[in-house]
Design goal:
This protein is of the alpha+beta class. It folds into two domains: 231 residues, Aminohydrolase, N-terminal nucleophile (Ntn) domain (Glutamine Phosphoribosylpyrophosphate, subunit 1, domain 1, 4-Layer Sandwich), CATH 3.60.20.10; 208 residues, Rossmann fold. 30% of the residues lie in helices and 25% in strands. The chain contains 18 helices and 23 strands. Strand 5 and strand 6 form a beta hairpin. The longest helix has 15 residues. The chain starts with 10 loop residues before the first strand and ends in a 9-residue tail after the last helix. The relative contact order is 0.12.
């Protein structure tokens, strides 16, 4: 595939208990709303109180499901998953939800996040004689639940939470209930909703409006919610740690119409753009976003700076989601496959180009050149988050410092690398001010300060990286 400079999140999850509803169809449309969280694979598992029915496959939600296979998914309980792989390669065997038969009936699981102690847990399971069929840490969680013993699933979940370390929001399905689980640090989001005849749980509230549900509340760190014939019940499954909600949910991952802690994400991103304008003004004629994720940041920057907002780039929203590999000739076209400039808007203009982040730095340079070739006389790049300098071990696809341009290059060097007239990032203090928070977020990718102790094996891997692998001498 052609280069991409955007971070990928682990996945989106959804669960529903609604007797009398077509739960498979509701799950399909909820996953459709969560498609932005993962485009590699999707799956749905339903249960009628006795048997589980499953369908999953590689591709987008609309490619995996159709009327025929949705009709097969009978029952009044369902969980669904749309995936981007972090732990576990992008293969059908790693596609979720996972489902197994136990002495107490079917057990299915969907997982958003990444366990940092998965290798140790995996080894313990193998030493106990448990057979594993995938390379995913999510299957490890499933077998931890299955092997905890006893019919009380709430107790099993608490035992699992005592062993698992890292980021996880889970949807779990038994023959008579749906469970939602959020890790003690609250790294990944999870929200409870109400629908006529039942309840739902999802990664983001944007999934609810699609199916006519309304938000009840966010699940807090370390909590377990059970949804069944009696409604819902929330209990504390593990003591909450210092809240460490992933900042990138606010900056990029979440859909703009999602609400976190009572605040619309689109509004939060505008606030980040406003703060960026205060910290890093530029002599310019227009503010142009890198669409679509940079748009709300650019709106905020324009509002605060007084520089007019204008579209300068048009994005093809589908070219990045094909499984057909481009030819070498098309690969050389690169960014032009995803973006096209609007020369009439750019001719003779000094441009402030707003992006939500720069990760690897492999698309910023081509975009700057594209704007210049379309007539821009100056391009000032502004980034609505601090420099990304450290890898993430909690479910985001940046597990190597060697991939991160800001890990080894100064802002001045990055500016020269991408060919901009100037480059500025939002400060950490400015970002937290825009988020209206002094703590409660995980900023490890900016600071290297992780919410828990990084495993030795990961530290050693990090130390072995070679600067010359990416940046040369």
């Amino acid at each position: 595939m052609f280069p991409d400079d955007k971070l990928k999140e682990a996945c989106g999850i959804f669960g529903i208990y609604a007797p009398g509803k077509d739960v498979a169809r509701h799950t399909f449309f909820a996953l459709y709303a969560l498609q932005h969280r993962g485009q590699e694979a999707a799956g749905i598992v339903t249960c009628d109180g006795q048997m589980a029915h499953v369908h999953k496959g590689m591709g987008l939600v609309s490619q995996v499901f159709n009327e025929e296979n949705l009709r097969y998914l009978q029952g009044h309980l369902a969980i669904g998953h749309t995936r981007y792989s972090t732990t576990g390669s992008p293969k059908l065997r790693n596609t979720q939800p996972y489902v197994i038969e136990t002495i107490d009936g079917p057990l299915a699981l969907g997982h958003n996040g990444n366990l940092i102690n998965a290798p140790q847990l995996r080894r313990e399971l193998l030493e106990r004689g448990v057979g594993l069929s995938t390379s995913s840490d999510s299957e490890v969680v499933l077998h931890l639940l299955a092997g905890a013993g006893g019919p009380d699933m709430g107790k099993r979940i608490r035992i699992m939470m005592a062993k698992a370390e890292g980021a996880y929001s889970l949807v779990i399905m038994t023959k008579d209930a749906i469970y939602g689980v959020r890790d003690p640090w609250g790294l990944r989001p999870l929200v409870l909703g109400k629908i006529d005849g039942g309840y739902v749980v999802a990664s983001e509230s944007c999934a609810f409006s699609t199916i006519g549900a309304e938000t009840v509340r966010e699940i807090q760190p370390g909590q377990i919610v059970r949804i069944d014939a009696n409604g819902y019940e929330i209990v504390q499954g593990a003591p909450p740690e210092q809240l460490a909600f992933c900042t990138f949910e606010q900056i990029y991952f979440a859909r703009p119409d999602t609400v976190f802690d009572g605040q619309l994400v689109h509004t939060t991103r505008q606030n980040l753009g406003r703060q960026l304008a205060r910290e890093a003004p530029a002599a310019a004629d227009i503010v142009v976003p890198v669409p679509d994720s940079g748009t709300p940041h650019a709106i905020g920057y324009a509002q605060e700076s007084g520089v007019p907002y204008s579209e300068g780039l048009i994005k093809s929203r589908y070219i990045g989601r094909t499984f057909i590999q481009p030819s070498d000739e098309l690969r050389r076209v690169g960014v032009a496959m995803k973006f096209n400039p609007l020369p009439e808007n750019l001719q003779g203009m000094r441009v402030v180009l707003i992006d939500d982040s720069i990760v690897r730095g492999n698309t910023s340079g081509p975009l700057v050149r594209m704007l210049r070739n379309a007539g821009a006389i100056a391009v000032h790049v502004r980034v609505a988050c601090p420099p990304i300098q450290w890898p993430c071990f909690m479910g985001v696809d940046m597990a190597s410092r060697s991939e991160l341009i800001a890990a080894y290059q100064s802002v001045e060097a990055i500016c020269a690398h991408i060919g901009a007239d100037s480059l500025a990032y939002l400060s950490i203090a400015g970002m937290m001010a825009a988020l209206k928070a002094t703590n409660g977020y995980c900023n490890a990718c900016f600071t290297g300060d992780y919410p828990f102790t990084t495993p030795i094996s990961l530290i050693e891997l990090q130390e072995k990286e070679k600067f010359v692998q990416v940046w040369g001498n």
